[in-house]
Fold this protein.
Amino acid sequence: MKIDTTCIHGAKDKTHTTGAIAPPIYQSATFVHPGVNEDTGYSYSRLQNPTREHAEKLVAALEGGAAGLAFSTGMAAITTLMELFSPGDEMIASDDLYGGAFRLFNTIAKKNGVTVNYADTSDIAIVKSLITDKTKGIFIETPTNPMMKVTDIAAVRKLTNGMDILLIVDNTFLTPYFCRPIELGADVVVHSGTKYLSGHNDTLSGFIVSKTAVLGEKLKYLHKTIGAVLSPFDAFLVTRGVKTLAVRMEKAQQNAMKIASWLKNHPKVTKVYYAGLSDHSEFEISKRQGTGFGAMISFSVDSAETACHVLNKTELILFAESLGGTETLITYPAAQTHADLPEAERLKRGIDGKLLRISVGIENAEDLIADLERALT
Ligand SMILES: *Cc1c(COP(=O)(O)O)cnc(C)c1O
């Protein structure tokens, strides 16, 4: 089955007999036991719920993993994942990381005795230099947020072969439609399902997919114990969103390519960061490890005043956090998603007052460009 078909037929509902094409929303906290030591496969919705199970199987099928778990948010998924590690363990993470993950690693993980060392994971030599006998995990985001750096997943896998190091990839930006990290050697894929998977800016969710069933069982235990599970209604929304993942990703990427090319030629734009541009530093790696580049663009303008002007002036493009939905959104990373980073760290990474990020949606590209043109004058 090809991936666009998997989006639609990747999970079969085994619970109902009505022939309903959409999976029913089992809005039930608990389930009747037919008798002593008997159950229907479901007992209590924190442990499992049929609607959530459907979404979990679907996302696991898309990623080509053995087991999938659905969480209330992406951060809940990453937090649960961190419980695989013990005090004294070290992790290596991409330095240009989602702000929330950075906050989690530097506060809660640190308090729990897990040290996270940051590296530009697009540079394999740096990753190698940070591996010690305490390193138990490598957490990669690719492309990164917001600088769009791309990491060669297979090369990191090669580096850690034979070592007891879990390779985790946050695949929120590319989704399995464009990139399948497990096929490239990842042990775990994590998602903010809030973004492209659900795709309509109408629900929060998170997913973990594990390569092996053994790791899946460990994670399932943490999932039910910590309890940050996805609700039946939100699971329904994700399943519904995934049905159009392929067409949304294609259209958003087409738009992104047009917008990135247009921005490159604008006199007030000094730099465009988009993995799909042939002058992107890791363009060849992106081409090799996926089937697309996604639809996230960052760009620098000539001054912070211009940046603020753009944020105030776009009409169609909405000034709002988040990404991956049908609507095109613009953000100001320095003041929003990455405001929690210490200033020196932020500036070192290039996240200054001139940087803007766009999550390109599926509107008409000409309308989006006209909106940017107006805002940039
Ligand atoms: C949004 C996001 C998260 C966190 O997900 P939530 O659903 O907001 O909790 C994690 N990683 C990336 C790359 C994200 O964009």
DSSP finds 14 helices and twelve strands in the chain. The CA atoms of residues 117 and 333 lie 22 Å apart. The pocket of pyridoxal-5'-phosphate is lined by residues 73-75, 98, 100-101, 141, 145, 170, 172, 192, 194-195, 204, 206 (CB under 6 Å). The longest helix spans residues 245-264.
